[in-house]
Design goal:
By secondary structure, the chain is of the alpha/beta class. The protein has two domains: 117 residues, Response regulator (Rossmann fold), CATH 3.40.50; 95 residues, Orthogonal Bundle (Arc Repressor Mutant, subunit A). The protein is built from eight helices and twelve strands. Strands 2-1-3-4-5 form a five-stranded parallel β-sheet, sandwiched between helices. The chain is elongated, with a radius of gyration of 18 Å. The protein starts with a strand and ends with a strand.
């Protein structure tokens, strides 16, 4: 069973979500405060953690920061509906995705499954030993490894998936809708900033071009394009 850590001080909501997720095949452990959440997350016993942003003491954003300092485990944020600041900060700190509260257990389960699918190696139609190559960029899908000029680049699971999709379509514009379906495993939601924030993070991790511009170009009203040399 897939072990999920649920960190939320709303015990009634946690119990309801845990009951549904258990019926859906997950094993759920609930903790009620941020400090306990950090300790549990870093034990390595969980496939994914769900963090509520609004908690007394150590809030969800700080929990996320502390976990990301030591672990690349997938993380999903529960945020207040319409609170874009918390969502963007969480994504910038390495959250894989977010769900706005109040949410249905079914929606949460679907998001968890989508995030976990992203972390599974993609089996391409070509020889597994061959990397995807665009200029100095090399990606090994079977190992989910990214290199630039032979130097490894650290990527979160979501960042990796977005970069792989762009690399497979290098030189062509990929719409945000396609990126959401292929990299996030879910339909694009109106006013969703998830892709934009992750793309910004990827841009900072890739070296600049000789003209000082990014290798990932924004095509307004259309999507993003990984530029070929």
């Amino acid at each position: 069973m897939i072990r999920v850590l649920l960190v939320d001080d709303d015990t009634n909501l946690s119990a309801m979500l845990a009951e549904y997720l258990t019926q859906d095949g997950f094993e759920v452990v609930c903790v009620e405060d941020g400090a306990s959440g950090v300790r549990e997350a870093l034990t390595g016993r969980y496939a994914i953690a769900v963090l509520d942003v609004m908690m007394p003491g150590i809030n969800g954003v700080e929990v996320l920061r502390r976990i990301r300092a030591s672990s690349k485990m997938p993380l999903l944020m529960l945020t207040a509906r319409g609170d874009d600041v918390d969502r963007i900060v969480g994504l910038e700190l390495g959250a894989d995705d977010y769900v706005a509260k109040p949410c249905t257990p079914r929606e949460l389960a679907a998001r968890l499954k989508a995030i976990l699918r992203r972390g599974e190696p993609v089996v391409p139609s070509r020889n597994l030993s061959d990397p995807l190559e665009v200029g100095s960029l090399r990606i090994w899908p079977e190992r989910r490894v990214v290199e630039w000029d032979g130097r490894a680049l650290e990527m979160t699971g979501t960042e990796y998936n977005l970069l792989e999709v762009l690399t497979r379509h290098a030189g062509h514009v990929v719409s945000k809708s396609e990126l959401s379906e292929q990299a996030l495993g879910r339909p694009l939601v109106r006013f969703d900033r998830c892709i934009d924030v992750h793309i910004s993070s990827i841009r900072h991790k890739l070296p600049e071009r000789s003209d000082g511009q990014s290798w990932i170009r924004t095509v307004r009203g259309m999507g993003y394009q990984l530029i070929r040399e």
